[in-house]
Design goal:
The complex is a heterotrimer of chains A (207), B (153) and C (316). Chain A has 207 residues and is an alpha/beta fold. Chain A has 7 helices and 6 strands, in the order H-H-E-H-E-H-E-H-E-H-E-H-E. Chain B is globular, with a radius of gyration of 17 Å. The chains are: A alpha/beta (207), B alpha/beta (153), C mainly alpha (316). Chains in contact: A-B, A-C.
Chain lengths: 207, 153, 316
């Protein structure tokens, strides 16, 4: 168990520990919100807007957000662009490699709902929330860089509602997708995942 | 090279195909029978068309029409080379020995149309997952995953 | 106090100095990188974003600890510390003030040149322990680069030792004259470039090439383990700059005493900024170009410098 889980349990057990728990929550949520390192899962045109948001005119390094190339160092995965059915296992694998706590931002219409490719296509996943638990959705085709910065700020507000003691259950693919609905497509089930990165059906983590 | 000059040179090479020479998108286009397509491509390459810009196909119902777009930097001209491929037995000689760029292009045509390129060093799917069934750009491709666009949008 | 206790205290002090240096270094790097790229770096926490690490450190500390399945667990856990220790040890021999270094030995300069070579072992261990082929490639590249650049780095410090007549750092500082700097200009530049390559920084950071190897030899390290690697890297930057400022730029000259220490810190900061400036301005150098540069350009330059010093020495 991670150290912070033990801390949370200790604080819950001790009388009057609730005050410390809320303080620790506030500090950790503040720290996590102010230092959100993003993994730019940029598959298509929205990646250009992501890059623009990290450059001089818009600059999300001001908010403490650095794009890191390695999922092991990141907190947020920003899925910027269309995810095809061939790409989906790769995106899921990278999501699995990120250490908890982690969040997902669906950037752009294609990641939110399949966007312009919702109709008449055979190989686009209609929205990244079919296989990832999304925290913030950004609409736009592509969204402006300011919209991405707004998403970071909204994500901070969402993080502020979390607690180190509340165990957050994150469902995985097989729980979210409805394999009986043929229009949603036959998504990769958890059993097909690589043996190395095999995860249990649900994963309980503290926030 | 002006298009008339190109027409003359191609007609000099293939007098029997001369009436089939047309002008499309500002470039010359010629349709050859399937058994001559490789030799025609080799002759055009010798004439100066050293770049294969694109390989694609069209589903014309009874047959596929395979289209090669050739370009020449020295002649400053472009040329479409077309051939009709029967639907029941879609096999075409591969152009990989003439232009290495044909490798991935022909894999794409194989992936989306099912046209088999004979002599291709590594013919397998390139855009779709390897276990996909069917060839989507054929007109008779049916997939229950497709949501058709409603008229009212 | 027993010498063991004293040694432990010195060790803790060294770790704190490097940690503090890393905190300031990370902030300064983000600001320098930002302003070179015509943007502001961190702005929100503290004046000019200086307290940004207050948010980064708790976040990194409480990330989930991932050890890849099949990785060599003991090696995996020890590798970051193995990378950190040589840097801390090397800082002990630097003459901070005139006549004083935390660990004043008669072979101090040799100690300083040799001990950071243990980083190579740490990087190979880190690369191997992850059971990740890309990390292994990154580690091997890093190791070959570091071993190659040891040679010009050592040869660049050799003329300094010749002029000073001693390997003891405090004696080198005491013997320094202002005209050594133009005389040893080639050595100074070669030392800086070789140090940058030693630390896998700047244009020589192909082992951590982001678009190629996804962070190279620390690809699978998350949270605090990675932060320790980063601290080791910034510690190395500061250590190398401190040494260059102390020996090539004359430590506290033209001041002495406490003001001399301040002067040393200022000179170090300038050199650290130059190192960061190089990283954010120059594009990455390819592996074979990097090694070629070392053997074909830097080593002959140091030999030329040795020849110059050899000619001047009898006149002193």
């Amino acid at each position: 168990m991670a150290a912070i889980d033990e801390l949370a349990e200790f604080l819950e057990r001790t009388p009057g520990g609730g005050i410390l728990l809320t303080t620790v929550d506030a500090v950790m949520n503040w720290a996590r919100g102010k230092s959100l390192w993003t993994f730019p899962m940029g598959t298509a045109c929205c990646a250009m807007e992501f890059i623009a948001a990290s450059f001089s005119r818009f600059d999300f390094d001001r908010h403490g957000t650095i794009p890191r190339p390695d999922p092991r160092h990141c907190d947020v995965m920003v899925v910027a662009g269309t995810v095809t059915r061939k790409m989906m296992p790769a995106v899921k694998r990278i999501y699995d490699q990120m250490p908890e706590p982690k969040w997902v931002v669906a950037m752009g219409n294609c990641a939110v709902s399949g966007g312009i490719f919702y109709y008449d296509t055979y190989s686009v996943v209609r929205g990244v929330d079919e296989f990832l638990p999304v925290d913030v959705y950004i609409a736009g085709c592509p969204p402006r860089p300011e919209a991405l910065q707004d998403a970071i700020l909204q994500l901070r507000k969402k993080i502020a509602t979390e607690s180190i003691s509340k165990r957050r259950t994150r469902p995985l693919v097989s729980d979210l997708a409805l394999p009986t609905d043929p229009r949603k497509g036959d998504l990769l089930s958890a059993a097909d995942a690589d043996e190395e990165d095999e995860a249990p059906a649900t994963r309980s983590v503290s926030a | 090279m002006r298009i008339e000059e190109l027409r003359e040179r191609v007609c000099a090479m293939y007098p029997d195909l001369c009436p089939l020479f047309s002008i499309e998108f500002g470039d010359g286009a010629i349709s050859v029978p399937l058994e001559r397509v490789h030799s025609a491509a080799a002759d055009l390459k010798e004439m100066g068309f050293d770049r294969l810009g694109m390989v694609t196909a069209v589903d014309r119902g009874e047959e596929f029409e395979i289209v090669y777009r050739l370009q020449s930097r020295d002649l400053r001209a472009g040329m479409f080379l077309k051939a009709l491929v029967p639907r029941s037995d879609p096999r075409v000689p591969s152009m990989c020995d003439l232009w290495p760029a044909a490798n991935w292009q022909e894999r794409e045509v194989y992936d989306l149309f099912g046209i088999v390129f004979e002599g291709h060093p590594d013919l397998r799917r390139i855009l779709l997952p390897d276990d996909w069934e069917g060839h989507p750009l054929r007109k008779d491709y049916v997939d229950e995953r497709i949501i058709p666009r409603p008229d009212y949008i | 106090m027993s010498s063991l206790l004293l040694g432990i205290l010195w060790g803790v002090a060294g770790v704190l100095v490097i940690a503090g240096g890393a905190v300031i270094g990370v902030w300064w790097e983000r600001k320098v990188a930002g302003h070179i790229q015509l943007r502001y770096g961190p702005q929100q926490i503290g004046p000019a974003g200086s307290l940004q690490m207050l948010a980064d450190v708790p976040k990194l500390l409480f990330k989930e600890d991932i050890v890849p399945s099949g990785a060599d667990r003991p090696l995996f856990k020890w590798a970051p510390l193995m990378a950190f220790a040589p840097v801390a040890a090397a800082m002990a021999v630097i003459p901070f003030a005139a006549g004083w270094a935390p660990f004043d030995t008669s072979v101090g300069v040799l100690f300083f040149l040799a001990v950071p070579s243990l980083e190579v072992v740490a990087i190979l261990v880190a690369a191997w322990a992850q059971r990740n082929s890309y990390a292994a490639i990154g580690g091997l590249r890093a190791a070959s680069q570091m071993i190659a650049y040891e040679v010009p780095r050592t040869l660049a410090v050799a003329p300094l030792v010749l002029l000073a007549g001693s390997l003891r750092p405090t004696e080198v500082v005491a013997a320094w004259r202002w005209w050594w700097l133009p005389l040893l200009a080639i050595a100074f530049v070669v030392y800086l470039i070789a140090s940058i390559a030693e630390m896998n920084r700047g244009p020589f950071d192909l082992p951590e090439a982001e678009s190629e190897l996804v962070a190279g030899y620390f690809a699978d390290y998350s949270g605090m383990r990675w932060a320790i690697f980063m601290m080791a890297e910034y510690g190395a930057v500061i250590t190398a700059s401190l040494f260059a400022a102390a020996t090539f730029l004359g430590a506290g000259w033209p001041f002495s005493g406490a003001l001399g220490v301040v002067a040393l810190v200022v000179k170090t900061s300038v050199l650290v900024t130059i190192v960061m400036w190089t990283k954010w301005t120059l594009p990455r150098v390819r592996q074979d170009q990097l090694l070629r540069f070392c053997w074909v350009v830097l080593v002959p330059a140091t030999l030329v410098q040795l020849a110059i010093v050899g000619v001047v020495l009898p006149w002193m």
